[in-house]
Fold these 2 entries.
Entry 1:
Amino acid sequence: MTAFEPKIIALVCNWCAYTAADLAGTSRLSYPAHIRMIRMMCTGMIDSKYILKAFLDGADGVFVGGCHPGDCHYIDGNLKAKKRILGTGKILEQFGFEPERLRLRWIGASEGPEFQQNMTDFVTAIKTLGPGQTNNRMVL
Amino acid sequence: MIRYALVKNRSPVHAVKSVLEKMLSQKLVDAILAAARNPYSLLPMPTLFCDPGKMEGIDPLAPVAPFNAARQAAAVTKQPTGKRIALVLRPCEQRALIELVKLKQCSLENVILIGVECLGRLENQAYIQHASEVSDFTSVFYKNPDMQAEVTRACGVCEQFTPAGVDLTISLLGAPEGGVGITAETETGDTLITQLELAVADEPESRAAAVGKLLQGRIAARDALFKATVEKINHIEKFQELIATCLSCHSCRISCPVCYCKECVFITDIFAHPPETLLRRAMKRGAVKLPTDTTMFHLTRLAHMSHACVGCGHCSSVCPSNIPVADIFRTVAAQTQALFDYQPGRDISEPIPYLVFEEELSESSV
């Protein structure tokens, strides 16, 4: 049996987590290739349906990377994200998705090593959890 | 201090009618929005009255509601008119209206809220059947506990049957034969009772017991429903089985009083997939069921609106595929509302959880 290679969607903020990913890259810090990154202008624009869609289409985990509170380029987008992700997690949980599959972390633009660490940790956590419930299942 | 006034007449329906007619004829209000039958339909529809002489078919106590009238109440209060309007609403309609006020869809300025204590509503067809067999079915319904057991599933598990935060309440529980109680919680309501020269009385002793008994039964039924529904949705496979016959007609969204977006994302081009998208999906998984995105639709609606679900049950009533949408919503909403300690319609000054953010929130709990 081949080892479980999770599919992970990372929704990252242009101003912090994405820049941190860029920094990790230029610093030659490697992280697992399971992450498919999607750049957003702000975590505040992440509607719950983006997360739901990822999970229903077979993602094993969704990572959201935003700015530290107080650092949001749009004042309070990250705090909006926090509330919304809390609510979305509560919905997912009731339909059998483990809450650990959705993770929000604050990663500043200068935190390349932290970005690497967060990605490695999340991939490890998802590998431990195993495949998600929509994996290879027909979702209507 | 709650003031209780007793109005007696031939039947509760006539008692309520007499009070509302008096409100208009004494010009205490300029208009009244209340459910009323018209010559063309047995089913009472929300009707805006200005002439007390036209109130023949008025029956806000009728145990039926073709839809949640909060939308209609919002339609007459969304812009200031300078007129004083009384809205006669069921508790679930009034709670939804409070949510719509918070969402800036209407305003309660110059509005008098009259809540009806509600034992539940029947499905439209069941009501029409009964109403065509007996005259004054409403009075029959309140006297007959068997009839009251026929209410919709959502009503059978509703524990908020007594209006809260209204000016006047039309209270039926514990009221003596042929009468209704009118209670006032606010100053406006108090003034109205005085102006209408209603006979102030002590609250009947039987009232507290009747309310308590009904509440107890409803809570037990609600908890049983939650337990049964959790079993049906706690895995995506089971949930899909439950909603397998969804036509994607969006009736549940249209009937939902708090789903207020004028252009829902599900009717936009985002979900009007071109054929290539459908083929790509079919190729990826081997097969794709059409219409697509039904699971997505229900989960998204839960994520967007469940914190504001008032539990009126109209989503289930309108579903052509008999999907128990309301059961799912009530069960899931219980969790999302508990998460934010939020109860829709409880207090107009209580902000919607998604619209307030606190700086000290850390990411760690997610």
Note: DSSP finds four helices and four strands in chain A.
Entry 2:
Amino acid sequence: MNYAIETDRLTKTYGKNRGINELELKVEAGDFFGFIGPNGAGKSTTIRTLLGLISPTSGSAKVLGYDIVTEKEKILQNIGYLPSEINFYRGMKVKDIIKYSADLRKTDCSKKAGVLSERLGLDLNKKVDELSLGNRKKVGIVCAVQHSPKLLILDEPTSGLDPLMQREFFNILNEENKNGATIFFSSHILSEVQNYCKSAAFIKDGKIIIADKVEQLEETGAKKVTVKTESGTEEYLYKGDIKELLKDLSGKKPLDVTITEPSLEEIFMNYYE
Amino acid sequence: MTILKQEIKSQKLSITIWSLSIGLLIAACVLMYPEMKSEMGNVNEMFSAMGNFTAAFGMDKLNFGSILGFYAVEAGNILGIGGAFFAAITAVSALMKEEKERTAEFLMTHPVSRTKVVLEKLLSTFVIILILNIVVFLCSACSILIIGEETDWGIMVLFHLAALLMQFEIAGICFCISAFLTRSGIGIGIGIAAVMYFLNIIANISSSAKGLKYFTPFGYTEGADIINDRTLNIGYLIPGMVIMAAGVIVAFWNYNRKDIK
């Protein structure tokens, strides 16, 4: 199997604080992968370790087949990255930032940068200091995508983008994915993952608790059960023998019962509760 | 050299303000010299009666009646303090500002090695300091030509070379500190430059503290020594350059292994 990202017991601790703990993550080349977890679960630590911004405490990882410690530059040559909180050099114009990013990659991507800026409605002559978070994100998207990288790593990319722009952004990602790029993005907005991703992984307390194809995750066999009794309404996910469930429900003397397929969000919540 | 160009471009305004402030202040002093020249005999007598105070600034060994003596004290102090502060601020900010202003994540996720980032930041710091010194020298030279005084240009160049090396040394120390900081260190930079300046004053006042001159870059910028010896004091210069090199090496070592915030 050809993996774009492959970690082996990857661990990062900050003194006594946990970052990620023996993380095992595999992302197939060409995948559109959602990395889901609540705040503080270790999503950004994973991404920052994969990018070489921070060194792993133990374990190892490969990105596009290159080691994250010894072959950092080769990895960075082939990726595009959009951080969750993006900041640029004060006083610079949008077009200068985009050009600076291309120059650092020693490539001329002015044509694609122009097209992307137009699609995102970006004013190239504005100073970056004057931009809102959403517009800063757009500059980040252009910088991350303009050189057509093999792997796009995006950390909570849609925060700050209005719904129209979010749609355009995912259109861009889909096009890149169709052209062969692997997309890896972290999010806590499950509908995004459900709508766009082929695969996903849930991270909790620095460990991957489940990773699979999105359709497999949705088909967990679990049912969302809502029972209305005289004492109130109870809602829970049930996984197991359906006869046992019905027996259990009849014992509760229900006034009303609904059994439905859970959404990814409900599956996700079940993992974290 | 993309990072180097970007650094110089982003500091255009700061370079212009500092260069012209120091350069024009020195030029203003030089332009006043013809008026003050006739009174310099009295000034020399006055200073000779002031004991340690004149020794502290190296004025006990200088002749104020000559343009070189006058220049060594006036320009020595303006360029000494101004240049040291500028070098300290520029160098201590060089690496630190990327993390402080949260642009490090942008820069370090481009295909540039940490070594290259440090190298280009270091070169840009030295180039920026060099630009300031060239502008200051041109301002000084023009002002001397305007007043029509005869001077020893060899000593003038030596004097400015010593100031340049002093700023490089302070920059080397502050650059090292910059590699460890993630928040503003401008106060630390200015503090280091000020301490170095005062160490030289202490060494000038007390003969038992002469050894301090090995630790302060102001030891080899002493105008009186340069005029009298017509050379830089290698004994003070070599330890200074070793300190600068050590600072740069530690900066490379630490920045290559640190976690970027």
Note: Residues 3-214 of chain A form a domain with the Rossmann fold fold (CATH 3.40.50.300).
